[in-house]
Structure formats: structure tokens, C-alpha cells
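User: Second chain of the day. Same drill as before.
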Amino acid sequence: MRIRPAETGDIPALARIQVRACRRAYGASLAGDAAVDEQRQRAEDWRKVLDDPECGILVFSTGNSVLGVTAYGPPRSQTPPDVDSELWALYVEPDRWRAGIGRALWVVAANRMTDGGAKSTGAWVVLGNIRARFFYEAVGFTLVPGALREMNRAAGENCEIFYQFELVAEHAPAY
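Assistant: Same format as last time:
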């Protein structure tokens, strides 16, 4: 197993992992053409992120299989002003949840952000995603009071909350 930068050939796996993780987390399921269309859209989204020179994408792989992915970069809209980087995404193959893959990806991403000069980072988390909230709190993120944004999603949850992490080189998270 290893963590490495994502490559173009990883895009179908990134889309698959994102769709499967979201479906498992939120209990929604799509069948047939709808599932294929969603995976196709996520693949296009990942392609755009991979082409963004300000963004980093890391994958956790074992053999020829990608089991997790994280993306990070500059803060996006509505991110609190004292945050200078953002963890854009963190997805793990649902059958591998609680196996340390998310933590390993987070640690490497945090160190890359620190190496790039970032002093703090954060992540928007769906309010009802208790598993994700527990993860971020367990690795040291703190909830930013009042940092809330509405989402435009058809299924279920419609708001996200913001978690922040102070990146200090001598206190970088360890894997």
C-alpha cells in the first residue's frame, strides 16, 4: 500500500469511490442509467480538479486498486477568512472504512499543505454526516461556530458545517 499523487488513469476509480462512499453515507441508491450518469459526472469533476494546478490529489492504493482519495487546495467560497487552504474531498471505499486509510490520506495531505506554506486548513462537512464529523474531530479538527453554508443537493441534507485545523510544521499530524 502506498499514497501517491493521482494520475489521469485513476479518474474512473476516484468517481466510483466518491459515488459509493456518498451512497453508503447518505443511504441513497441509484439504479441503472442514473448511477452510470452520476459516476460519469463525478469523473468529469475529478478530471477538472486533476487539471487544476493549485490542487493536489492523493490516492491510497494497494496493488492496482485505488481505495481512497483526497483533494486539497486553496480555500473556496464561503470558507472562513483565517483559513489559507482547504481539504476539498476525502473519500474511502466503504468496505475499507475504519481501516486507517482516511487518516493516512489526511496526514500526507496535511504535510503537503504545510510544506506548501499553509498555516491552517479546513473542511466543509455535511451536517448530518456523523461518521465524517466524528473522523474530523478524532484527527484534531475543531468545529467553527456559525460557519454554515447551504447546498443545492436533491437528496437529503442541505447544509454543511466547517471544521478547521491549525497546520503547524512542528506539530504536523503523524501517520
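The chain has one domain: 2-171.

User: Great, on to the next one.
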